[in-house]
Design a protein that fits this description.
Cytochrome Bc1 Complex, Chain A, domain 1; MPP/UQCRC_Complex; 6-stranded mixed beta sheet; 2 domains; 5-stranded mixed beta sheet; alpha+beta; Peptidase_M16_C; Pept_M16_N
């Protein structure tokens, strides 16, 4: 697959524009990435970035609520949005001859969103219901929601992106309007356009619709918190939830940022340990020892750090405490033992294939460029990572695990059915 040699420029108001023409099969992906995520939520107001993911679909000065759906879905396209720890992203895919309308709509959302009481109250209720479904109703939702808070001590990554009902209840319209004015601005965003379009025509439309948007004079607050390393492992924590089918154990390590050289080796380690029935942890805990119903390992990369997680859900009557040593044993075996060439090649190929398959579509290429910008500020990093991935060696995997996981301080969470008196939703 050829390199993604995108065209890049910056408007006078600070908006960065990345354009990658070609290979759209008559379609075009338009994405706007805002450099605001869960880590930027004000203290005591977690969930604001996620709230605005929803609010941005409400009306603007010249656009009715949900009109973005009509401009995409009604012409055979689609739209979506997501919030992460570091960014909030709005994605559109439409036939190429509808490109101008989507550029106008995204400029409208950036310049003149209606952040009023009615929209705030309706979308806050939607987000709170999402919290109830994803966190309170899911048998393991409370566990997933608690993990970042037990990984990070001082960095804002410690707060779940989804927020909390309490923080959202405490929010006022003035709080929300101030957050919007602070972060939703052209100099805190970049526009990505990928697919079938004429670059000169695109430049003209971008200048027309985005160029007039005012750049505020106020500075953009940035998180400059360095997460301290643990000097020792925290005491194990016992968590409970209602309707928990089987107990679970989670091990957590503070990991390196997305830009760290060990990142690719840790991605390969994730496949070796956790992908499929032949993976190390599934074979060791589920098939051979038969002490777990499922087991896995993952590394979630953020701009400033990462969270490394190993987990197992107990099988039968096994207690969650009994899963810790087997999890660590199988991870340690990978970190210190041989990795057969065929096993390494398969894992490396799986990571590479996943990236290449994604790039077969305009939206997949736009996603790759966007993450490269968020994590390193350079779209070319997406291609460099693909090249570097092909050279990851067994020793790279072993060294990465020894640097960040093996014999490093870790947090341990045990999750099980709540005593009956504790089963009321919180």
């Amino acid at each position: 697959m050829p390199p993604m040699a995108c065209l890049r420029r910056t408007l006078a108001n600070g908006l960065e524009v990345l354009a990658l023409p070609g290979g759209g099969s008559g379609s075009v992906s338009v994405q706007v990435w805002y450099r605001v995520g869960g880590k930027d939520d004000p203290e005591g107001r977690s969930g604001f970035a996620h709230l605005f993911e929803h609010l941005m679909f409400k009306g603007t000065r010249h656009m009715a609520p949900e009109q973005i759906d009509r401009l995409t879905e009604d012409v055979g396209g689609q739209n979506n949005a997501f919030t992460s720890e570091d960014n909030t992203t709005y994605q559109n895919l439409v036939p190429s001859h509808h490109l101008e309308r989507i550029l106008w709509a995204e400029a409208e959302r950036m310049a003149s969103l209606n952040v009023d009481e009615a929209n705030f109250l309706s979308e806050r209720a939607v987000v709170q219901e999402e919290y109830r479904q994803r966190v309170l109703a899911d048998p393991y939702g409370r566990l997933f929601n608690a993990m970042v808070g037990h990984t990070f001590d001082v960095h804002p990554y410690r707060r779940p992106v989804i927020g909390s009902i309490t923080d959202l209840d405490a929010a006022t319209l003035a709080d929300v309007q101030a957050f919007h004015a602070t972060y939703y601005r052209p100099d805190n965003a970049f526009l990505i356009v990928v697919g079938d379009f004429d670059p000169m025509q695109l430049d003209g439309w971008v200048n027309r619709y985005f160029g007039p948007i005012r750049r505020p004079s106020s500075p953009i607050p940035r998180v400059n918190v360095r997460e301290p390393a643990w000097t020792h492992s925290p005491a194990p924590v016992h968590l409970h939830g209602p309707n928990v089918p089987l107990p679970a154990t989670v091990l957590l390590w503070k990991g390196p940022p997305a830009s760290h050289p060990d990142g690719l080796a840790l991605q390969v380690a994730q496949v070796l340990l956790s992908s499929g029935e032949a993976s190390r942890l599934h074979e060791g805990l589920v098939q051979r020892r038969r002490i777990a119903q499922s087991a896995g390992w993952s590394c979630s990369f953020y701009t400033d750090a990462s969270s490394i997680t190993a987990y197992a859900i107990a099988a039968g009557s096994h207690r969650p405490e009994a899963l810790v040593a087997p999890l660590l044993d199988d991870i340690r075996r990978l970190a210190h033992g041989p990795i057969p060439a065929a096993e390494l090649d398969k894992a490396r190929t799986q990571v590479l294939t996943s990236a290449l398959v994604g790039r077969q579509t305009p939206e997949g290429r736009a996603d790759a460029l966007g993450w490269a910008m968020i994590h390193g500020g350079d779209p070319a990093q997406a291609d460099r990572e693909l090249m570097a991935l092909q050279t990851v060696r067994a020793e790279d995997v072993r060294q990465a695990l020894r640097r960040h996981v093996i014999d490093r301080p870790m947090a341990t969470l045990y999750y099980s059915q709540a005593p009956q008196a504790e089963e009321r939703p919180s």
